[in-house]
Description:
Helices cover about 45% and strands about 15% of the residues. It is of the alpha/beta class. It has one domain (about 5-240): Alpha-Beta Barrel (TIM Barrel), CATH 3.20.20. Helix 4 links the parallel strand 3 (about 65-70) and strand 4. It starts with a strand and ends with a helix.
Amino acid sequence: MTQLSVNLNKIALIRNSRGSGIPSVTRAATTCLQAGADGITVHPRPDERHIRRSDVHELKAMLDVEFNIEGNPLEPTFMELVRTVKPTQCTLVPDARDQLTSDHGWQLPADNDRLRPLIAELSGLGIRVSLFMDPVPEQMALARALGADRIELYTGPYAEEFAAGHGAESIARYAAAARAALEAGLGLNAGHDLSLDNLGPFLEGVPGILEVSIGHALIADALELGLPETVRRYAAICHAGR
């Protein structure tokens, strides 16, 4: 069974467009969990354009499930936050401050020297470490050698290829990367632009996915279906036997 972790960034983005606390990030988290989500994901950025550091602390105080914090560990504010909060999992993402959204994975071995001490520190704090990676089989053993526990396959290209009618070819590429990760002893996560349309085929074709984190498409669907029903539909796909 694949676990569903709901990314709440878009809830925070809507809230931040006004001066009030509506919609509530913590209330959205509760709604998602009651509807069948297995965990919560946030991706705080230095400019706090959506999730704020205060949100992270409030979520940590209320959650008794998987809590995944994504971000760039080369940002001092990110490392300060996770040292204090100690989430279940940190997904390390190489996003620049001016990026609209994450759009590529770490490049190994080029990033090895920067990542190795940070992974060691997080592991020492008892935090599971996942590296955001492109589906390149040759890089999976390198990620494991750095001390990562899991990798998160960046699925943005898959979503684009699926929409263009090339889903089968894309899934074959991701499946090869997944097999390499499993052989290296890594756990497998996936995320970015996964949706009700493309999630099922991806999970059917790519072995060993333990967790997906989904935000943008899920919140967009919730505008039409409502948040509880949307989470139930995504959770049904994730929890289906394979």
